[in-house]
Amino acid sequence: MSEKTTQASQLESALWNAADVLRGKMDASEYKNYLLGLIFYRFLSEKTLTTFSDWAGETENVTRKYAQYMDPQFELEGVSVQPSLVEYLQNTLGYLIQPQALYTTLIGKIQAHTFALDDLSQALHDLEQSTQNLSSAQDFSGLFADVDLSSNKLGSSLQQRNQTISDTMLALNAIDLIHHQGDVLGDAYEYLIAQFASDSGKKAGEFYTPRQVSDIIAQIVTYQRNAGDKQVRTIYDPAVGSGSLLLNVGQHVQDPNLVSYHGQELNTTTYNLARMNLMLHG
């Protein structure tokens, strides 16, 4: 078994086990929204720190350094660096996560027993607001609408709901999402979608095309059009679901970077899942 395959298997298993906190409280068609949403938010948060590290040349205590650089009062050679950093992050990532809203910061609050659901709710809201007036605004609009932190299925009281989300975030925090080869995280996300589809039974058809069916369709679509000047450049799915079929077609061509993906989806929850899946795959 290759190193990448081993990494993928370990990550998939760890992520699936993280759902244990939510199992029993609701069925898979519902708790997938929380787990996948939190995984994606952590991914965006970690990507923020990685991008900052590359920009600033800081490799140690990156979270603390990020907070320092984002302080309007912090200066280098007499000039505040915050405006330049904010502009760079928004232009590079298409969004901005403030230091107090980083996943690692929220975890620190959970561990210090000072975390409130409003902290996460505000973080998700601020992320979406940070994309206003950017070309990425449509990509993030309403993206986390299905992460319903007020749902009684998380707990009958505010304290119980807070504990459920805290435990889920801690379980995800124990998993290394960053140090993996290639598209391992993206593949793991696809694995979770497939697992949720399996657990959801008849509801799965709303958001997931079985891998075997997806492979056949991808091979048909790319037949004699998978390389060179004849390579498929545009893919459209009129019932996009989670976006897995689009991504699978992209994996059957020589240069996936040349492919532009298009789709439409009636179900808002599924549409949000597709956007996360496609963005996570780059």
From TrEMBL:
Presence of the UniProt keyword Transferase in the record: yes
Domain named DNA methylase adenine-specific: residues: 181-282
Coiled-coil regions listed in the entry: none
One record GO biological process: DNA restriction-modification system
Keyword line: Methyltransferase, Restriction system, S-adenosyl-L-methionine, Transferase
Broad class of enzyme this protein falls into: transferase
Catalytic activity: a 2'-deoxyadenosine in DNA + S-adenosyl-L-methionine = an N(6)-methyl-2'-deoxyadenosine in DNA + S-adenosyl-L-homocysteine + H(+)
Residue ranges occupied by any N6 adenine-specific DNA methyltransferase N-terminal domain in the UniProt entry: 11-167
Family per similarity comment: Belongs to the N(4)/N(6)-methyltransferase family.
Name under which the protein is recorded: site-specific DNA-methyltransferase (adenine-specific)
